[in-house]
Amino acid sequence: MRKPITDLIHHPYVPPAKFAAPQPGVFKASTVFFADVAAMRARDWKTKAGYTYGLHGTPTTFTLEERLCALEGGTECLLAPSGLAAIALVAFAFLKTGDEVLIPDNAYGPNKALCSGELANFGITHRLYDAMNPADLAAKLSDRTKLVWVEAAGSVTMEFPDLPALVGACRARGVITALDNTWGAGLAFAPFDFNGTGQGADISVQALTKYPSGGGDVLMGSVITRDERLHRALKLSHMRMGFGIGIGDVETLLRSLPSIALRYHAHDRSARELATWLDGRAEIAQVLHPALEGSPGHANWLRLCGASDMAAGLFSVVFDARYSAEQVDRFCDGLKLFRLGYSWGGPISLVVPYDIGLMRDPGIARWPHKGTLVRFSVGLEDVDDLRADLEQALAAL
Ligand SMILES: Cc1ncc(COP(=O)(O)O)c(C=O)c1O
Predict the structure, then answer these.
(1) What residues flank ligand 1, with Cβ below 6 Å?
(2) Atom of ligand 1 nearest to the CA of 86
(3) 277 and 190 share a domain?
(4) Does residue 297 form part of some domain?
(5) CA-closest residue to ligand 1 atom 2
(6) Are strands 203-207 and 314-319 parallel, antiparallel or unpaired?
(7) Core-most of 230, 261, 375, 377, by most CB within 10 Å?
(8) 131-189 pLDDT per residue, tens
(9) What are phi and psi of 98, to 5 degrees?
């Protein structure tokens, strides 16, 4: 007779199958059981045909991966513990000693730091290129170039590049392109099919931390492709580096993903309204929002995103040079609804002042502004309240 403590663990009860509810079931596992040794030996961890170990996928992670593929128009997806980890996964899957990676000067900063840190330590070089000048990228492609990053819009300064031209230059040389698609989120444009041409990036990375999560409470990244060969290489690196993610976070993502388009649209509408309003203010020298005329790359945004008429809820402003950096800091401190904090895509509006002089390489493209830049991530608050908050902080200047 078995003792109750054993039956507590090896309990015979199996709930009836075919439970249906709005949210999919949540399966938490490191260990996965096999029916017998033959099944254990036959199992191929590289496919979604079954389960091997928690790190290689569960019904819950597979479900999120498939839904993200649907969003971005890809066929294969891998999840990583953060957006930056997803970026690192791409680098480690495709670069080895002696290779070179090209990265836009206005790329997400920590991607550049990864290049000058770990990748340099492994003997992988990187070069920055001017995202707004496809000829600069084309001139820097060499036999050593094995990966090119593209990003639209550029981080913080929001320039919208000619993505089809950048990707086209790489394709002509057979170089893999990886798009940081966090801004577009699979909604503003199709990352694998620019304007219905069937041409797009080879790999799309998203920080799911932003719009797919939408809560400011989850860190996760995705790496999506349409190319089985690229996916295989990524899957091998993913396994070897042991990138696991908390299933509770996957559950949160599955809960928020269905509302992503509504939220993205709401962030976009409020951001455009505030950006347009700030454009008319004497305190502001330049508004940087790709959907606004006069913003760098607006024509590129129009060509790629005109059909969706979508943009993320992010924009930056450059203050008139008569305001010192300290005054602009005080403006940020004076905001009451906009909170000081990194990241974007959550319900609460955020603000960060940046010193662009420290972030851009003067040898790539000259930053034309003298005033201090402030980046806003517009949340889901009422837009009139947000405008009033900006107005009172501007008045205090
Ligand atoms: C454009 C972009 N890509 C990637 C990331 C990295 O995402 P995570 O914070 O999940 O590492 C961020 C985060 O701010 C980002 O802005």
Answers:
(1) 82-84, 108, 155, 180, 182, 207, 209, 219, 221, 343
(2) 11
(3) no
(4) yes
(5) 108
(6) unpaired
(7) 377
(8) 999 999 999 999 999 999 999 999 999 999 999 999 999 999 999 999 999 999 999 99
(9) 95, -15
